[in-house]
Design a protein that fits this description.
2 copies of one chain form a homodimer. With 339 residues, chain A is α/β, with parallel strands linked by helices. The first copy, chain A, folds into 2 domains: 171 residues, Isopropylmalate Dehydrogenase (3-Layer(aba) Sandwich); 149 residues, Isopropylmalate Dehydrogenase. Chain A contains 12 helices and 12 strands. Chain A is globular and about 60 Å long. Chain A starts with a strand and ends in a 7-residue tail after the last helix. The interface between A and B is large, with 57 and 57 residues.
Chain lengths: 339, 339
């Protein structure tokens, strides 16, 4: 499997991207990574690293799309940017997948316009893998923020695509799919979720009904379907809550005198573990579902570990031939798109 | 100030309601509480309590609206329920405010149909006072879940009503009002928040623009305006996140051996403080804004302290003559309701 890595545009790029690639090819035997971006800079970074030269190559691109760039303009005009060069080569079938930590909007537009959507898909979704209170269990949230003002039929697609991901990539048989709603009862919801609920009942997916946002992290479902605006509310609230918890705890410890400080030192490993889960790298990024090829968005502040994980995720998706699986799942549920 | 307390319908009712009332009249000099519900049961509970007999009286009602009752039917048919009796007496001007921990939907319907809405208000909102990382600062979230599929003009009303609350009841001069959105930039949002943003700019309130859900608990604004569906997403995510944090921490401590357990014991006061803020009684309930009289919803699991706080909150709102202040603020911004 050959994954192209957009090495520019993220906060810690290109250093962390290059370092992540070296770690990823060490971990996965049949993974090759192509580093896309300014070859002088990338080669300079590679110079001191020890790695299998056959597994990491460089593809030159002279421009960089930044977070300040307007997505559509950036994709149209920055034709020699690391993101556009990687996307075009991916679309041409040169690679099996792509990872980028750059401008999310530009990556979404670029994936949609250049790599194109799977037949029958109205919009690509950006889906983070949420941590849960169970160590070995993730839940995929479709959509995590790429699409607002969704139609009910889009939520139906999200459900099918999310189910295909969890079954093909994570090996979960008959994954449980739930609809994010303001109440568990069937009659609850706004006009979107009520209509979506009715549509979801008429699919061959394992639809378990509505769940409330309080259940997001409790592993109740394998797939949680939501309008991207609502998905964004949940992700950002969880992020803020995590930050608030540690801000307050730090203050209480400072105010708590010697006893609290000693307690903190003893409890540090547990608290660190908690912090790691709560500020999980997985929440910041996500996978694009609905695109013809595998595209993974690493979060903007990705460090080397986050890049390594994103590359492995892309590898797993490519290995599972996810785009084909999604296409099949959609055909099987023969979507009728309303206009 | 005379506040009527619906003593039935909550999880810990009527015991905690009666106990909360006794505590409230002890704390506030010019507060009288009327306990509404089965007089036999209430008098039995009052028997052992020490309190000023002039400050607590009983108003009989023979029925109870439960959480299983359908809201509209319950209000129409259970005419001698503690909730309906209290609401009708409030509407007649017998009391200055009301507190209930009963069926939220029924209370909203009852307040709207029996007590009625202030002129120019399209819908009453249910607004929790969120804790922030600053001990002495709350943010009011309007709407916290009462109304879904809001129109932009409703969000404009929510902003004005929330501002009136923070200025009249909390004494905040020119309260900062923000719109909950999926991005801080003006052009971000779904169709609702984009239109609402434009409307909010044309008010005399102190509109500071969009904020993201990650900022909810950081005291950035005094009032946060949202569609009730989105408000619900945020409140429930925060609730679930709080639960997840303590579930995981407990597990890590158990796995962490003697050192972690000792650390936990030393850090217990800090962790308890954190837990108290995060599972704050204020988040579970809220105030109804837009109703002609003061109505406070205590959360369903209210204990005596939560009831005492809800009664004090109703007292403060009545003392500040909040409904009149809201009416004035709406007139001043001469709402044009689109149909």
């Amino acid at each position: 499997m050959k994954i192209v890595l957009d090495c520019f545009g993220g906060d810690l790029c290109p250093d962390s991207a290059v370092e992540g690639a070296v770690a990823a090819v060490q971990e996965i035997k049949d993974l090759e990574v192509v580093l896309c971006g300014d070859e002088k800079i990338i080669n300079e970074l590679l110079k001191d690293k020890i790695y299998d030269k056959e597994k990491i190559t460089v593809r030159h691109a002279s421009e960089v799309i930044t977070n300040d760039d307007a997505p559509v303009l950036a994709i149209r005009r920055k034709k020699d940017s690391s993101m556009v060069v990687a996307l075009k080569a991916l679309a041409n079938g040169e690679y099996d997948g792509m990872v980028s930590s750059g401008n999310t909007g530009a990556l979404l537009v670029g994936a949609t316009l250049l790599v194109k959507l799977i037949d029958g898909v109205q919009r690509a979704s950006l889906s983070p893998l949420l941590p849960t209170i169970f160590d070995d269990k993730n839940t995929i949230l479709v959509d995590g923020g790429a699409n607002v003002d969704c139609k009910p039929s889009m939520l139906r697609e999200f459900a099918i695509m999310g189910g295909a991901y969890m079954s093909a990539v994570k090996g979960i048989e008959n994954p449980k799919v739930a609809l994010l709603n303001n109440g568990a009862e069937e009659e609850k919801g706004n006009s979107l979720t009520k209509e979506a609920h009715a549509l979801l009942k008429n699919t061959d997916i394992n639809f378990i009904g509505n769940i409330e946002a309080r259940d997001l992290l409790f592993g109740v479902a394998d797939v949680i379907v939501a309008d991207g605006f609502d998905g964004n509310m949940c992700l950002k609230t969880a992020e803020g809550m995590g930050k608030a918890v540690f801000t307050l705890l730090k203050r209480y410890i400072m105010e708590g005198g010697l006893k609290a400080k000693l307690g903190y030192l003893l409890l540090k490993p547990s608290l660190r573990k908690l912090k790691k889960i709560m500020s999980s790298d997985s929440v910041g990024g996500g996978v694009f579902l609905g695109v013809k090829k595998v595209v993974v968005k690493a979060h903007g502040a990705s460090n080397a570990v986050a890049f390594k994980n994103a590359l492995i995720r892309a590898y797993e998706m490519a290995k599972a031939d996810l785009p084909a699986k999604i296409e099949n799942a959609l055909k099987q549920n023969s979507i009728q798109v309303e206009e």
